[in-house]
Amino acid sequence: MTHSKETQTYPSRKFCVAPMLDWTDRHCRYFHRLISQHALLYTEMVTTGALIHGDHHRFLQFNAAEKPVAFQLGGSNPRELAICAKMIEDYGYNEVNLNVGCPSDRVQNGRFGACLMAEPELVAACVAAMAQAVSIPVTVKSRIGIDERDSYEELAHFISAIADAGCKTFIIHARKAWLSGLSPKQNRDIPPLRYDVVYQIKQDFPQLEIILNGGVLTLDQAEEVLQHVDGVMVGREAYHNPYLLAEVDRRFYGESEAPRSREMIMERLIPYIQEQLDRKDGVRLNSITRHILGLFHGEPGARGWRRHLSENVCKPGADINVLLNALQTRERG
C-alpha cells in the first residue's frame, strides 16, 4: 500500500482498462498490472460523499505497483470535488476522472453520472474547481448523449464547454444512455455503438485527447480504433479474459520483451495474496481470486481451474493451498 506524494508523471492513455463497479478494486488492478506494465488502470467509481464522510483511506489505498492508475470520482458539487481531487493527488494517483457516464438510478438520484450531460455548465464548473485544486490531469468520462438529447451538436457543445474549463482528455463511451427504461446492464448493450460520432469529435477537436470506450473485444479492434482517436478503453473483456492484456505492451507501447506467461503471473501473484491474507485486516481469499477466474480462458484445463476455485475459496479455513491445488488441477486437465 502506498500513501505518498511524489512527482507525478502524465500517464499514457493509449490503452486503458475501464473503471468497473465491484470489479476494478485494488486486488484486480494489482493482478492486471502483472499482465501489462503500461496499460492505464482505473479504480471503481467512488462518490465524493464516501471520501468526505466515510473511511477515505479504505477507498484511496492502493499498492505502488499498480501505477499508473487513475481514480474515478462521482459527484456534482464543485467544492466537494475539489476537496476529493486533492485527496486523490495526495495519495499518489496519476489522474482524477469525473464520471459523467453512469446511467443507474442510484447515480442519478445523487445527481452525478450520465444525467450531468444535460448540465454542461455545471460539469465545467466541477472540472474548473478540480483543475485548480490539483496538478494531476482532470479527465471526464461521458456517453455520446442521453435520452432524446443525443444530437451531435449537443455533444459538441458539452465537449467544448468542459474543454474551456480545463479538461484536455475525454473518454467517450460510444453509446447514448437512456436514463429511464433500461438497466445499467442494458445500457451497456442495447443503445447502438456509434464510433463515427467519437471519431468526428476527434476531427472537430484535434487539440483534445479523445479515448474511445465501448464494444472493443480484441487488440486488432483496438488497433483499428487507434487509427481515428488517441486511445482505447476496454472494460468487460479485459476482466473476463484478462490475458488479453498480455500483448498490450508490445503492440501499443513498443515493449520488446515477451509477455509473462500465465504461470509466471501466478508465481508473482501468490506472494501478494499471502501477504493480503496475513494482514491484520486480512481479506478473504475470494476477494482476490474472483478476479483471476478468467486467467486461463480458452486454455486446456480452464474449466477445472474455475471450478476448483469457485467450489473451495469460500470454505472455512481456505488458504493459499486452494490456489496451488487449482493450478495442479488445471495442469492435470
Automatic annotation (TrEMBL):
**Any idea which positions bind FMN?**
19-21, 72, 141, 173, 213-215, 235-236
Q: What is its EC number?
A: 1.3.1.91
Keyword flag Glycoprotein: no
Query: EC class of this enzyme?
Result: oxidoreductase
Name the site position(s) for Interacts with tRNA.
99, 185, 188, 303, 306
InterPro entries annotated for this entry? Aldolase_TIM (IPR013785), DUS-like_FMN-bd (IPR035587), DUS_fam (IPR001269), DusA (IPR004653), tRNA_hU_synthase_CS (IPR018517)
Instruction: From the Swiss-Prot or TrEMBL record, give the protein name.
Output: tRNA-dihydrouridine(20/20a) synthase
